[in-house]
Amino acid sequence: MPRRHPETSTVEHLVIVGNGMAGHRLVEALLARTERPARITVIGAEQAPAYNRILLSPLLAGEMQREALTLRSAEWYAEQGIELILGERVEKIDCDARTLSTDAGRRLDYDRLVLATGSNPARPPVPGLELPGVHVFRDLHDADALARAAESGRNAVVIGGGLLGLEAAEGLRKRGMQVSLLQRDDRLMNRQLDLTAARLLENELRGRGLDIHTDAQLERLEADAEGQVCAVLLADGTRLAADCVVVAIGIVPNAELGRVAGLEVNRGVIVDEWLTTSDPAIHALGECCEHRGNLYGLVEPIWRQVEVLAERLCLDHDHADDEDAQGYVEKPTATKLKVSGISLYAFGPTEAEPDHEVLSYRDPQQGNYRRLLLRGGRLEGAVLYGDTASGPWYFEQALAGVDLTACRTALLLGAADAQALLDDALNESPHSPAKEAA
Ligand SMILES: Cc1cc2nc3c(=O)[nH]c(=O)nc-3n(C[C@H](O)[C@H](O)[C@H](O)COP(=O)(O)OP(=O)(O)OC[C@H]3O[C@@H](n4cnc5c(N)ncnc54)[C@H](O)[C@@H]3O)c2cc1C
């Protein structure tokens, strides 16, 4: 029986379902606070304790060792007085009785429950997708299976030209496979990049040996005499040899547990700004939840959800009456690509609207491209390819809604030059601290 922590919130027994990135981060956030639930139990379906899923891409590419991915060991959980149950899947929740049961027949009572069950890879409805040799790229098991496939096979086809598909394709190429990448849209990373940046990326990857097909319409997958996948067929008649196929077309929230428990579920488990579901004793966060119609696929908003929920679970008072309490609010996120040798940074709309002012800079020799979208002097979107050092500064200015008119001439030169002009303009202002002191 885990020991009871001396300083506790009013939550007696907190059970967290899912020992992935959100579930683990919540544990860390609870431990960082002076008051924490008396008893914490974490149940994870994977065999391994929480690891950094983001680093599966460099792991597949052979750029990182498995051990470097582990966030905390099972021993660490024990030392914190947290019961960690791994390799068991929660199958059923009885909201009235406040109990849950796992596929190993374990039954647990809870006082509060957090669903952090992540998402599942989406699968296109095409014939042949169930064949052996067809993979997804979501967990350690998938990364191992892909590394093994790369040892025995020569040809791989990756379906999906978004972040995950590109990282999987590069990983397999680095492991010596001939990789074809299929993208349904007219460009790679169509949710983040404008056409120019997407073409720069495409050219770079083609130069490295990736066989890229944009506007690709998937028709079916073919099996060989042993029933193993051997080819991918496109609607235009193209036939691509494939010893291994990776499906990376997106994710679907893993909301099934919430659905069978009778919680309100749309695409994800619906939560309010306190990450509370339709049952006040159950919360959800991360990729399994849906907040005001938004779903999640990057960690940045999830980290902010974790902070809100940790605060709630530790204090456990009614935030509706607390004017200082800050619920979860959506904020824009920026995207980076983790393919070594390629730097990309993007946020905001990919296409300019009629009232956007577009500033762009391109240096083909250095392989640099920047395109900024402004409205009324304020930055709304940026795409940076090559030198991305100023990306976070642009993002900061956009989030803060700073009027960048004073540094417009230096905006494309980068953060340092633009900030210097902004500072000059501030000092010139009649309300500047320097002027007021004088
Ligand atoms: C290869 C790859 C690269 C990525 N790169 C980036 C990146 O560069 N930047 C970025 O921001 N994001 C990246 N992501 C996305 C990021 O990893 C996810 O947003 C994040 O992991 C979501 O956290 P989560 O806890 O909601 O889900 P997960 O981390 O998937 O954790 C969910 C956990 O719950 C477990 N589970 C599910 N159902 C049950 C059940 N019934 N009972 C018990 N346990 C259950 C699952 O087994 C899993 O371990 C990447 C993802 C992948 C796969």
From TrEMBL:
Keyword Metal-binding: no
Designated name of the protein: Nitrite reductase (NADH) large subunit
Domain FAD/NAD(P)-binding: 13-291
The family this protein is said to belong to: Belongs to the FAD-dependent oxidoreductase family.
Gene3D superfamilies named among the record's database cross-references: 3.30.390.30, FAD/NAD(P)-binding domain (3.50.50.60)
Domain of life: Bacteria
Keyword Flavoprotein in annotation: yes
Requisite cofactors: FAD
Molecular-function GO term, any one: oxidoreductase activity
Annotated source species: Halomonas shengliensis
InterPro entries reported in the protein's UniProt record: FAD-bd_OxRdtase, FAD/NAD-bd_sf, FAD/NAD-binding_dom, FAD/NAD-linked_Rdtase_dimer_sf, Rubredoxin_C
PANTHER family: NITRITE REDUCTASE [NAD(P)H], PYRIDINE NUCLEOTIDE-DISULFIDE OXIDOREDUCTASE DOMAIN-CONTAINING
UniProt entry keywords in alphabetical sequence: FAD, Flavoprotein
